[in-house]
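hi! just following up on the protien thing from before. the input was this:
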Amino acid sequence: MNLLRHPERPARAPDYRITLAGQPISPQVDARLQRLRLTDKRGMDTDQLDITLEDSDGRLALPPRGAKLHLAMGWQGHQLVDRGSYIVDEIEHSGAPDQLTIRARSADMRQGLPGKRTQSWDELALRDIITTIADRHDLTLKIGDHLGGIFLEHIDQTDESDLHFLTRLAERFDAIATVKAGNLLFIPEGSGTTASGVAIPPITLTRQVGDRHRYVVTDRDAYSGVIAHWHDPDAAERREVVVGTDDNAKRLRPTYATEADALAAAKSEWQRLQRGADEASLDLAEGRPDLYPETPVTLSGFKPEIDAIDWLITEVAHDLTDTAYTSWLNMEVRKRPKHHND
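and the predicted 3d structure came back as:
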């Protein structure tokens, strides 16, 4: 990623604030900062903060693992955007020249949903199941209306963490499960919702704001359907279900516990394939600290086929030094225009 400033743009100075255990450490970091990188992903993927500091004089103390960092970032002269808390879990010191790299991951994901458990869930709405999980981790539930009413006759959680179980439920029902700012979100994939459950306002990004872009389109009609397998204990054999047709179907690798699980997984994957496999990435010459995964995006000034698609951010990376701040976005199709031809 190019960390140099765009030559036609007026010079702006990046700004940030880091606190350790509630105490500001930014003044001590400023003179030593080589790079700060924040990677923000959707779903249960853990957000990661990497800070690289110069230590040629050997005066930097190694921070303890488990320490909590809080980050806000943006531009000088503007209000900084709160980017949340992160738990230090990796320290690296290298040289020469000597430098210290601190890696920290989202506090929400590090501290929440730990441990494996075994539990059977019978004759419950999806809202009831996820409410139980949210309550035992002291999280506030935000669930999509149509998802909450889904009824499950039976599903097993066998020697499985709540995090993994929620991820499996999300994949089954074409949803996203994530923990942000003390909230457990279980929302339809591509719904564009904040941690508080509020719809994220769409943004428009023009060709002029980017240094580089990449757009890839593949044939969404390559598969005629999806095949998923499940284990039939009565017959002691593996069976399959088909969504779409089996002429040129995509086969899912896992073997599911029940026919219902296999069918739900096949339907979810078929819906994903029908949304298309188009993806795009964009390097922003000036960083946008207000951008998060699930933000709806309209692109302007590219090819007509690219501009016509409603995009959704799936991952954001923020790169900051003492002189430059850039952002990188990865996007997938949120809504394909009816007139779009692959």
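The longest strand covers residues 81-94.
The first helix runs from residue 26 to 30.
cheers
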